[in-house]
Amino acid sequence: xxxxxxxxxxxxxxxxxxxxxxxxxxxxxxxxxxxxxxxxxxxxxxxxxxxxxxxxxxxxxxxxxxxxxxxxxxxxxxxxxxxxxxxxxxxxxxxxxxxxxxxxxxxxxxxxxxxxxxxxxxxxxxxxxxxxxxxxxxxxxxxxxxxxxxxxxxxxxxxxxxxxxxxxxxxxxxxxxxxxxxxxxxxxxxxxxxxxxxxxxxxxxxxxxxxxxxxxxxxxxxxxxxxxxxxxxxxxxxxxxxxxxxxxxxxxxxxxxxxxxxxxxxxx
Length: 268
What we know:
By secondary structure, this protein is α/β, with parallel strands linked by helices. The chain has helices at 42-53, 70-83, 112-125, 158-168, 188-216, 232-236, 249-261, and strands at residues 2-7, 11-17, 28-35, 62-67, 89-91, 128-134, 137-143, 149-156, 223-228, 244-245.
Protein backbone atom coordinates (compact mmCIF):
# COMPACT_ATOMS: atom_id res chain seq x y z
CA UNK A 1 0.00 0.00 0.00
CA UNK A 2 1.19 3.53 -0.74
CA UNK A 3 1.55 5.97 2.17
CA UNK A 4 1.23 9.63 1.18
CA UNK A 5 2.40 12.41 3.52
CA UNK A 6 1.43 16.05 2.98
CA UNK A 7 3.23 18.33 5.47
CA UNK A 8 1.81 21.86 5.52
CA UNK A 9 2.48 24.81 7.78
CA UNK A 10 -0.44 23.98 10.08
CA UNK A 11 -1.31 20.29 9.59
CA UNK A 12 0.18 17.04 8.37
CA UNK A 13 -2.23 14.87 6.37
CA UNK A 14 -1.58 11.18 5.82
CA UNK A 15 -3.29 8.97 3.27
CA UNK A 16 -3.06 5.25 2.60
CA UNK A 17 -3.87 4.04 -0.91
CA UNK A 18 -4.83 0.47 -1.74
CA UNK A 19 -2.83 -1.91 -3.87
CA UNK A 20 -4.46 -2.64 -7.22
CA UNK A 21 -4.05 -4.89 -10.20
CA UNK A 22 -3.01 -3.48 -13.55
CA UNK A 23 -5.56 -1.11 -15.06
CA UNK A 24 -7.26 -0.27 -11.77
CA UNK A 25 -7.08 3.07 -9.96
CA UNK A 26 -5.87 2.88 -6.35
CA UNK A 27 -8.42 4.08 -3.81
CA UNK A 28 -7.84 6.01 -0.60
CA UNK A 29 -8.34 3.49 2.21
CA UNK A 30 -7.65 5.66 5.28
CA UNK A 31 -6.60 9.21 6.07
CA UNK A 32 -5.33 10.92 9.20
CA UNK A 33 -4.55 14.49 10.24
CA UNK A 34 -2.03 15.71 12.82
CA UNK A 35 -0.64 19.14 13.69
CA UNK A 36 2.65 20.37 12.27
CA UNK A 37 5.43 21.20 14.72
CA UNK A 38 8.54 22.69 13.12
CA UNK A 39 10.61 21.36 16.04
CA UNK A 40 9.48 17.77 15.52
CA UNK A 41 12.33 15.27 15.15
CA UNK A 42 12.43 12.32 12.76
CA UNK A 43 11.91 9.91 15.64
CA UNK A 44 8.89 11.82 16.99
CA UNK A 45 7.37 12.00 13.53
CA UNK A 46 7.83 8.27 13.00
CA UNK A 47 6.37 7.44 16.41
CA UNK A 48 3.17 9.40 15.74
CA UNK A 49 2.74 8.28 12.14
CA UNK A 50 3.37 4.62 12.86
CA UNK A 51 0.96 4.84 15.79
CA UNK A 52 -1.75 6.27 13.55
CA UNK A 53 -1.15 3.61 10.91
CA UNK A 54 -1.59 0.85 13.50
CA UNK A 55 -1.68 -2.58 11.90
CA UNK A 56 -1.37 -0.96 8.46
CA UNK A 57 2.24 -0.01 9.20
CA UNK A 58 3.43 -3.36 7.89
CA UNK A 59 1.36 -3.00 4.70
CA UNK A 60 3.29 0.06 3.45
CA UNK A 61 5.13 -0.77 0.23
CA UNK A 62 5.97 2.78 -0.86
CA UNK A 63 5.91 6.38 0.41
CA UNK A 64 5.29 9.68 -1.40
CA UNK A 65 5.72 12.89 0.58
CA UNK A 66 6.11 16.64 0.43
CA UNK A 67 6.79 19.36 2.97
CA UNK A 68 6.33 23.11 2.69
CA UNK A 69 8.20 23.54 6.00
CA UNK A 70 11.99 23.40 5.40
CA UNK A 71 12.88 22.31 8.96
CA UNK A 72 10.41 19.44 8.82
CA UNK A 73 11.53 18.46 5.32
CA UNK A 74 14.98 17.64 6.68
CA UNK A 75 13.50 15.47 9.43
CA UNK A 76 11.11 13.85 6.93
CA UNK A 77 13.99 12.64 4.81
CA UNK A 78 15.74 11.28 7.90
CA UNK A 79 12.55 9.50 9.05
CA UNK A 80 12.00 7.84 5.68
CA UNK A 81 15.59 6.61 5.55
CA UNK A 82 15.53 5.31 9.11
CA UNK A 83 12.03 3.83 9.41
CA UNK A 84 10.92 3.14 5.82
CA UNK A 85 14.29 2.69 4.19
CA UNK A 86 13.36 -0.75 2.89
CA UNK A 87 10.55 0.57 0.66
CA UNK A 88 10.76 2.99 -2.30
CA UNK A 89 10.02 6.59 -1.34
CA UNK A 90 9.62 9.81 -3.30
CA UNK A 91 9.96 13.27 -1.75
CA UNK A 92 8.70 16.07 -4.00
CA UNK A 93 11.59 18.46 -4.62
CA UNK A 94 13.60 19.77 -7.61
CA UNK A 95 14.51 16.88 -9.91
CA UNK A 96 11.35 14.88 -9.23
CA UNK A 97 9.25 14.32 -12.34
CA UNK A 98 5.80 15.86 -12.02
CA UNK A 99 4.92 16.42 -15.67
CA UNK A 100 3.70 19.94 -14.79
CA UNK A 101 5.26 22.79 -16.83
CA UNK A 102 5.65 25.86 -14.60
CA UNK A 103 4.87 28.90 -16.76
CA UNK A 104 5.89 31.52 -14.20
CA UNK A 105 8.76 33.98 -13.80
CA UNK A 106 10.64 31.90 -11.20
CA UNK A 107 9.62 28.22 -11.07
CA UNK A 108 11.78 27.67 -7.96
CA UNK A 109 9.41 29.89 -5.97
CA UNK A 110 6.39 27.64 -6.55
CA UNK A 111 5.63 25.47 -3.53
CA UNK A 112 5.55 21.71 -3.95
CA UNK A 113 1.94 21.59 -2.74
CA UNK A 114 0.81 23.96 -5.49
CA UNK A 115 2.52 21.88 -8.17
CA UNK A 116 1.02 18.65 -6.84
CA UNK A 117 -2.47 20.19 -6.64
CA UNK A 118 -2.10 21.31 -10.25
CA UNK A 119 -1.21 17.79 -11.33
CA UNK A 120 -4.11 16.20 -9.43
CA UNK A 121 -6.70 18.76 -10.56
CA UNK A 122 -5.88 18.28 -14.23
CA UNK A 123 -5.81 14.50 -13.79
CA UNK A 124 -9.27 14.47 -12.19
CA UNK A 125 -11.01 16.97 -14.47
CA UNK A 126 -9.00 16.88 -17.70
CA UNK A 127 -9.55 20.55 -18.45
CA UNK A 128 -8.45 24.00 -17.35
CA UNK A 129 -8.88 24.39 -13.59
CA UNK A 130 -8.84 26.94 -10.83
CA UNK A 131 -7.78 25.34 -7.54
CA UNK A 132 -8.63 27.10 -4.26
CA UNK A 133 -6.62 25.65 -1.38
CA UNK A 134 -7.86 26.77 2.05
CA UNK A 135 -4.85 26.30 4.29
CA UNK A 136 -2.53 28.52 6.32
CA UNK A 137 -2.75 30.80 3.31
CA UNK A 138 -5.54 30.76 0.76
CA UNK A 139 -3.89 29.72 -2.50
CA UNK A 140 -5.72 30.14 -5.79
CA UNK A 141 -3.83 28.33 -8.54
CA UNK A 142 -4.58 28.31 -12.25
CA UNK A 143 -4.12 25.28 -14.51
CA UNK A 144 -4.31 25.42 -18.29
CA UNK A 145 -6.22 22.90 -20.41
CA UNK A 146 -2.83 21.29 -21.16
CA UNK A 147 -2.03 20.84 -17.48
CA UNK A 148 0.37 23.78 -17.21
CA UNK A 149 0.73 25.79 -14.01
CA UNK A 150 -0.02 29.39 -15.03
CA UNK A 151 0.30 31.15 -11.65
CA UNK A 152 -2.40 32.37 -9.30
CA UNK A 153 -3.09 34.47 -6.23
CA UNK A 154 -2.15 34.15 -2.55
CA UNK A 155 -4.10 35.63 0.36
CA UNK A 156 -3.92 35.34 4.16
CA UNK A 157 -5.65 32.17 5.35
CA UNK A 158 -8.78 32.09 7.47
CA UNK A 159 -7.20 30.99 10.75
CA UNK A 160 -4.27 33.40 10.68
CA UNK A 161 -6.65 36.25 9.80
CA UNK A 162 -8.84 35.38 12.79
CA UNK A 163 -5.79 35.10 15.05
CA UNK A 164 -4.49 38.48 13.89
CA UNK A 165 -7.86 40.16 14.47
CA UNK A 166 -8.16 38.74 17.98
CA UNK A 167 -4.60 39.79 18.79
CA UNK A 168 -4.94 43.36 17.52
CA UNK A 169 -8.50 44.23 18.63
CA UNK A 170 -8.93 44.37 22.42
CA UNK A 171 -12.71 43.86 22.36
CA UNK A 172 -12.70 40.96 19.88
CA UNK A 173 -11.79 37.32 20.40
CA UNK A 174 -11.42 34.06 18.56
CA UNK A 175 -14.73 32.37 17.76
CA UNK A 176 -15.87 28.98 16.54
CA UNK A 177 -15.55 28.78 12.77
CA UNK A 178 -19.14 27.95 11.82
CA UNK A 179 -21.85 29.53 9.70
CA UNK A 180 -23.88 32.09 11.70
CA UNK A 181 -27.68 32.28 11.76
CA UNK A 182 -27.70 35.15 9.28
CA UNK A 183 -25.36 37.51 7.46
CA UNK A 184 -26.49 40.31 9.79
CA UNK A 185 -25.02 39.23 13.10
CA UNK A 186 -27.01 39.95 16.26
CA UNK A 187 -24.05 39.72 18.63
CA UNK A 188 -20.28 40.00 18.51
CA UNK A 189 -19.72 36.29 17.92
CA UNK A 190 -22.18 36.15 15.02
CA UNK A 191 -20.78 39.35 13.54
CA UNK A 192 -17.31 37.82 13.53
CA UNK A 193 -18.57 34.54 12.09
CA UNK A 194 -20.43 36.39 9.35
CA UNK A 195 -17.36 38.39 8.41
CA UNK A 196 -15.23 35.27 8.35
CA UNK A 197 -17.52 32.88 6.46
CA UNK A 198 -19.19 35.24 4.01
CA UNK A 199 -16.20 37.58 3.80
CA UNK A 200 -13.83 34.84 2.68
CA UNK A 201 -16.44 33.39 0.31
CA UNK A 202 -16.80 36.82 -1.27
CA UNK A 203 -13.02 37.24 -1.49
CA UNK A 204 -12.62 33.91 -3.25
CA UNK A 205 -15.53 34.51 -5.62
CA UNK A 206 -14.16 37.92 -6.55
CA UNK A 207 -10.69 36.56 -7.31
CA UNK A 208 -12.00 33.51 -9.18
CA UNK A 209 -14.28 35.63 -11.39
CA UNK A 210 -11.38 37.91 -12.33
CA UNK A 211 -9.19 34.88 -13.05
CA UNK A 212 -11.88 33.31 -15.23
CA UNK A 213 -12.20 36.56 -17.19
CA UNK A 214 -8.47 36.41 -17.97
CA UNK A 215 -8.29 32.66 -18.49
CA UNK A 216 -11.32 32.09 -20.70
CA UNK A 217 -11.47 35.30 -22.69
CA UNK A 218 -13.12 34.61 -26.00
CA UNK A 219 -12.21 30.90 -26.11
CA UNK A 220 -15.21 29.67 -24.16
CA UNK A 221 -13.30 26.59 -22.98
CA UNK A 222 -14.64 24.89 -19.84
CA UNK A 223 -12.91 25.61 -16.55
CA UNK A 224 -13.37 23.50 -13.41
CA UNK A 225 -13.26 25.45 -10.14
CA UNK A 226 -12.46 23.24 -7.18
CA UNK A 227 -11.61 23.64 -3.52
CA UNK A 228 -9.36 21.68 -1.21
CA UNK A 229 -7.68 22.17 2.17
CA UNK A 230 -8.75 21.69 5.76
CA UNK A 231 -10.97 24.78 5.93
CA UNK A 232 -12.65 24.31 2.55
CA UNK A 233 -15.94 22.93 3.99
CA UNK A 234 -16.44 26.22 5.85
CA UNK A 235 -16.55 28.26 2.63
CA UNK A 236 -17.54 25.91 -0.21
CA UNK A 237 -21.26 25.96 0.59
CA UNK A 238 -21.28 29.77 0.58
CA UNK A 239 -19.25 30.23 -2.60
CA UNK A 240 -20.95 30.99 -5.91
CA UNK A 241 -17.96 29.97 -8.04
CA UNK A 242 -16.61 26.76 -6.48
CA UNK A 243 -18.22 23.76 -8.17
CA UNK A 244 -16.19 20.84 -6.81
CA UNK A 245 -14.79 19.88 -3.41
CA UNK A 246 -11.73 17.62 -3.53
CA UNK A 247 -10.63 17.18 0.11
CA UNK A 248 -7.76 14.80 -0.75
CA UNK A 249 -6.46 16.57 -3.85
CA UNK A 250 -2.85 16.77 -2.62
CA UNK A 251 -2.82 13.10 -1.61
CA UNK A 252 -4.03 12.12 -5.08
CA UNK A 253 -1.27 14.27 -6.58
CA UNK A 254 1.33 12.55 -4.41
CA UNK A 255 0.11 9.17 -5.64
CA UNK A 256 0.46 10.33 -9.25
CA UNK A 257 3.99 11.65 -8.64
CA UNK A 258 4.98 8.39 -6.99
CA UNK A 259 3.80 6.45 -10.02
CA UNK A 260 5.89 8.71 -12.26
CA UNK A 261 9.05 8.32 -10.16
CA UNK A 262 8.86 4.91 -8.47
CA UNK A 263 11.49 3.51 -10.84
CA UNK A 264 13.98 6.03 -9.43
CA UNK A 265 12.78 5.93 -5.82
CA UNK A 266 15.52 5.05 -3.28
CA UNK A 267 15.28 1.99 -1.05
CA UNK A 268 17.78 -0.21 0.70
